[in-house]
Design a protein that fits this description.
binds adenosine-5'-triphosphate; 33% helix; nitrate transmembrane transporter activity; 10 strands; Rossmann fold; 7 helices; alpha/beta; globular; ATP hydrolysis activity
């Protein structure tokens, strides 16, 4: 059988207590795969370990056990193959929007001329509607605009995979909706593989091909994987007209409200 583009096997993470002894794992036995070009969202209550998993996929953190294989190679440390967008935009405050994007582009293609780097970077800022703000500093941008620069910066390095940690969490509903639409159209145009954390079930249904539902920690697991079978040409304004929509939405909300804490992990198989 062919391997998925990204394969996560037996991931667990525990932290030591004050005396240095390992505590109960925050999450354990986390297994899932992501196909090339797939958009996968992960949903679960606060503290179940979503950000930790994303950081492990990014190579910014290490799991206590388990392995992450991307495109046939084990992930060990950060790489330009993976672009990350954090909840707080993490822009360099002394550089303009354009220079912030150019920074990554120059590292990705060190042989490019200044003009090439600039043109490529400006193109991605235009895609997120920031043509008019290329030369503004982060302090001169709104929260939504900063987040757009972060998204342009991540897309501009054309990573094999994009990792998004609640990228719209701090935005007002209107801005959030507009940027979700922009993200959807860029992802559709580029076929980018995406792993995204969100707390918003409607956002997940709009964007995802499949949604990973995590049970509560400690010892959190991927309790369920929900395939989103709504046609791919989804739009925020019309999605709720689809006959499947409320069934999927109710299923996700029911998991979060009623079932995420009752999830009983299967016992480990006895060694033979
Ligand atoms: N350095 C650390 N030492 C001890 N515990 C930690 C450390 N870092 C994270 N944790 C614990 O690991 C758990 C998972 O944290 P993580 O941020 O991954 O969760 P999350 O699901 O992303 O939460 P949220 O939705 O609130 O962002 C939390 O209970 C947190 O307290």
């Amino acid at each position: 059988m062919s391997q998925p583009f990204l394969k996560i096997e037996g991931l667990s993470r525990h932290y030591p207590d004050a005396s240095g002894k390992p505590q109960t794992p925050v999450f354990e036995n986390v297994h899932f795969g992501i196909e090339r070009g797939e958009f996968v969202c992960i949903i679960g209550h606060s503290g179940c370990g979503k950000t930790t998993i994303l950081n492990v996929l990014a190579g910014l953190d290490e799991a206590s056990s388990g392995v992450v294989i991307m495109d046939g190679r084990e992930v060990r440390g950060p790489s330009l193959d993976r672009g990350v967008v954090f909840q707080s935009h993490a822009l360099l405050p002394w550089l303009t929007a354009l220079k912030n994007v150019e920074f990554g582009v120059r590292s990705r293609w060190p042989d490019w001329s200044r003009e090439q780097v600039e043109q490529h970077s400006a193109k991605y800022l235009e895609m997120v509607g920031l043509k008019h703000a290329l030369h503004r500093l982060p302090s001169e941008l709104s929260g939504g605009m900063k987040q757009r620069v972060g998204i342009a910066r991540a897309f501009a390095i054309q990573p094999k995979m994009l990792l998004l940690d609640e990228p719209f969490g701090a935005l007002d509903a209107l801005t959030r909706g507009t940027i979700q639409d922009e993200l959807l159209s860029i992802v559709q145009a580029t076929g980018q593989t995406v792993f995204m954390i969100t707390h918003d079930v409607d956002e997940a249904i709009l964007l995802a091909d499949k949604i990973l539902l995590m049970s509560n920690g400690p010892q959190a697991r991927i309790a369920e994987i929900v395939e989103i079978t709504l046609p791919r040409n989804r739009a925020r304004a019309t999605m709720h007209h689809d006959p499947q929509y409320y069934g999927i939405r109710n299923h996700l909300v029911d998991f979060l409200v009623n079932r995420s804490h009752d999830y009983v992990p299967l016992p480990e198989p006895e060694p033979v």
